[in-house]
Amino acid sequence: MSNVDSVRQKVQRILTQKLGPVRVDEDGDFIVEYESARMLIEVCEGLGDDGVVVQFRCPLVDGVKLTNEVYKWVATKGQSRRIGALRVIESDKTPGVGMIANEQCIIADDLDESELMANVVVLLRDSARLDTELQSMFGGELFGED
Questions:
Q1: Sign of dihedral through CA atoms 35, 37, 43, 47?
Q2: For position 80, what pLDDT does the model report?
Q3: Cβ-based neighbours of 69, under 8 Å, separated by 6 or more
Q4: Do residues 64 and 141 touch, judged by C-beta distance below 8 A?
Q5: Whether 89 contacts 98, CB under 8 Å
Q6: Is the CB of residue 34 less than 8 Å from the CB of residue 56?
Q7: CA 23 to CA 129: how far, in whole Å?
Q8: N or C end of the chain, less CB within 10 A?
């Protein structure tokens, strides 16, 4: 079993113990929700031969018109956060429109329960507050809204 597979099983076990059954998307990412926020958790190869990282991604608002103001805000205020960093992801289908996501990555070679859950909880809570703030500033829809 590879290190990635081992860490992935560990992440799933911890999430299930702490949160109950956890959904898995078509890419194999774990899905965790809190209020309006949705988090995708990916376990993947890191730096080095055996390194493993856990990537936490909370898509915040989708369908945002990507103006200079959006890029400036994300590049300045969005990068000054203590936990997580914001990123613009342009749509493959509609140029000039995209999504703003809150992301964080940790090295998972010695991952423990408290480290995983602290990152999940803090990023989810922050994203649940931030998504509505960004929607009011730049428009778009909260991720996952129909």
A1: negative
A2: 82
A3: 138
A4: no
A5: yes
A6: no
A7: 23
A8: C
In this structure, the dihedral spanned by the alpha carbons of residues 9, 12, 15 and 21, taken in order and rounded to 10 degrees, is -140
Cα–Cα dist 141/135, whole Å: 7
Question: What does the DSSP 8-state code read for residue 109?
Answer: T
Is residue 66 a contact partner of residue 90, using CB atoms and an 8 Å limit?
Answer: yes
Tens of pLDDT along the chain (146 residues) come to: 578 889 999 999 999 999 988 999 999 999 999 988 999 999 998 777 678 999 999 999 999 999 999 999 999 988 887 788 899 999 999 999 999 999 999 999 889 999 999 999 999 999 999 999 999 999 999 976 64
Say if strands 30-34 and 52-65 run parallel, antiparallel, or are unpaired.
unpaired
Instruction: For 87-108, write each residue's pLDDT tens digit.
Output: 999 999 999 999 999 999 999 9
pTM of the predicted structure, to 2 decimals? 0.89
